[in-house]
From TrEMBL:
InterPro entries: H3K4_H4K5_MeTrfase, SET_dom, SET_dom_sf, SMYD1_SET, TPR-like_helical_dom_sf, Znf_MYND. Residues 47-85 form the MYND-type domain. It is found in: Cytoplasm; Nucleus. This is [histone H3]-lysine(4) N-trimethyltransferase. It comes from Sphenodon punctatus. One of its GO terms (biological process) is skeletal muscle cell differentiation. Pfam families: SET, zf-MYND. The gene is SMYD1. The keyword Zinc applies.
Length: 486
């Protein structure tokens, strides 16, 4: 943590600034979780130490609740699991994720004291909880959480005051960071990273935060790494510059982003992009060209899109994918008469329809939509945005499956360049992408020289699955980086 320092940022309270120079892709700091838990629905599918999704996990013989990859992960977990393990046995069952996380934090404070722990710039006691800004509904939830917590908290552990317990739940509520599996496909848990909590939001930030599950297999070697987050620079940062990350996805008009930030994180965004409404015109673009639509037609298309998105959500959560596709195609027809290619409502439909069609293996139609989507994304997102990189990767894979090798390879290369900055070269997703890049490059060369050999090679590649099949689409909206419920 030598490269950063805490300071008071004008109008924003506490912040973090750089004390040396950084360039795109530099890791400014890495931080292990102060405490972290797996989501209730996944406790038997994800390792409780490294948060990797694994086909085969070993169960803790004591509580029969915790699961681990192997002995290494289990041994690593013991300091944090020991008290939890006996409390679960006593309680008869494990409480929900919120209670488990609060208890883990409390046990750690009990062991180490509430002051600064090694490598932390801020103590848990000093983190913001926003309890005083809670509405009635939130206060009710908080009371229920505290009640369940007290039922679970063992009598032999330290006695805790109400204020202290409320503080911890408040901290979890606004600072819980979402953890994903090793492929970045699914949110699997939540953790508290105190240093990360010090970094203020900007809709156009100079850093990104990425979760790395670590590599536990290489015990006792230099490749052995632990689960952590990394703060990475998106471009050049000079000494004295404030560090910022974006708590939410950029693809919303500034007014909507501000509303979301106020609701979820209790502050008014005063970033340059919000103040000047930068890119709002693109995000709400009307169709260009000779037949300009009337403002009413644009309004109508947007309302139609909103209504359709609701129907799509329902069909998608029920797994009726052909209905999703039908709704999307209808909506696109309406949109194409009135909306511009960077309009967010059009992009939302393109994102859903390309994902669902890929899953249904209609790759060619999916590729067309994916191409339009990433072309627009490149005009909207910061060039090193992780979301952009992931979208380029998915679009590249779809093109590859559609046999559009040249375009596919191009997108995979672009995605790789973004992920080298946002995820770093050793992240599993970047490594996957590198394999895909090499594979598609070879195929492209083959395609240009000898088409027959190219098709032979494709067959082999399809069997080896160097380039993966598409995961089933989920209804999960990309959460903010902090886990707080909407
Ligand atoms: Zn593990
Ligand atoms: Zn146990
Ligand atoms: Zn903003």
């Amino acid at each position: 943590m030598e490269a950063v320092e805490v300071f008071t940022s004008e109008g924003k309270g506490r912040g973090l600034k750089a004390t040396k120079e950084f360039f795109a892709g530099d890791v400014i700091f890495a931080e292990r979780a102060y405490a972290a838990v797996v989501f209730d629905s996944l406790t038997h599918l994800v390792c409780h130490t490294c948060f990797k999704r694994q086909a085969k996990l070993h169960r803790c013989g004591q509580c029969k609740f915790a699961y681990y990859c192997d002995r290494t992960c289990q041994r690593d977990a013991w300091a944090n699991h020991k008290s939890e393990c006996s409390a679960i046995k006593k309680h008869g069952k494990a409480p929900n994720e919120n209670i488990r996380l609060a208890a883990r934090i409390m046990w750690r404070i009990e062991r180490e004291g509430g002051g600064l722990t090694e490598g932390c710039l801020v103590s848990i006691d000093d983190l913001q909880n926003h309890v005083e800004s809670f509405g009635e509904e939130e206060k009710k939830e908080l009371r229920l959480d505290v009640e369940s917590f007290l039922e679970f908290w063992p009598s032999e552990s330290q006695h805790l005051g109400m204020q202290c317990i409320s503080h911890i739940f408040g901290v979890i509520n606004c600072n819980g960071f979402t953890l994903s599996d090793q492929r970045g496909l699914q949110a699997v848990g939540v953790g508290i990273f105190p240093n990360l909590c010090l970094i203020n939001h900007d809709c156009w930030p100079n850093c990104t935060v990425i979760f790395n599950n670590g590599n536990h297999e290489a015990v006792r070697s230099m490749f052995h790494t632990q689960m952590r987050i990394e703060l990475r620079a998106l471009g050049k940062i000079s000494p004295g510059n404030e560090l910022s990350v974006s708590y939410i996805d950029f693809l919303n008009v500034s007014e909507e982003r501000k509303r979301q930030l106020k609701k979820q994180y209790y502050f008014d965004c005063t970033c340059e992009h919000c103040q000047k409404g930068i890119k709002d015109d693109l995000l709400l673009a009307a169709k260009e060209g000779e037949e300009k639509p009337s403002p009413e037609a644009v309004k109508e298309a947007i309302q139609f899109s909103k209504d359709t998105l609701e129907k799509i959500d329902k069909a998608r959560s029920e797994g009726v994918y052909h209905e999703v596709v039908k709704l999307c195609r209808e909506c696109l027809k309406k949109q194409e008469a009135a909306l511009g290619e960077t309009n967010i409502y059009l992009l939302r439909i393109l994102s859903i329809v390309s994902e669902v069609l890929s899953y249904l293996q209609f790759f060619e139609e999916a590729a067309g939509y994916a191409k339009r989507m990433v072309d627009a994304y490149m005009k909207l997102y910061h060039p090193n945005n992780a979301q952009l990189g992931m979208a380029l990767m998915r679009a590249g894979v779809t093109h590859w499956h559609a046999g559009l090798i040249e375009a596919g390879h191009g997108m995979i290369c672009k995605a790789y360049a973004v992920l080298l900055v946002t995820h770093g070269p050793t992240h599993p997703i970047t490594k996957d992408l590198e394999a895909m890049r090499i594979q598609s490059e070879m195929e492209l060369r083959m395609f240009q020289q000898n088409e027959f050999m190219y098709y032979k090679m494709r067959e082999a590649a399809l069997q080896n699955q160097t380039i993966q099949v598409m995961p089933e689409p989920t209804n999960e909206v990309a959460p903010g980086i902090f886990q707080r419920k909407q």
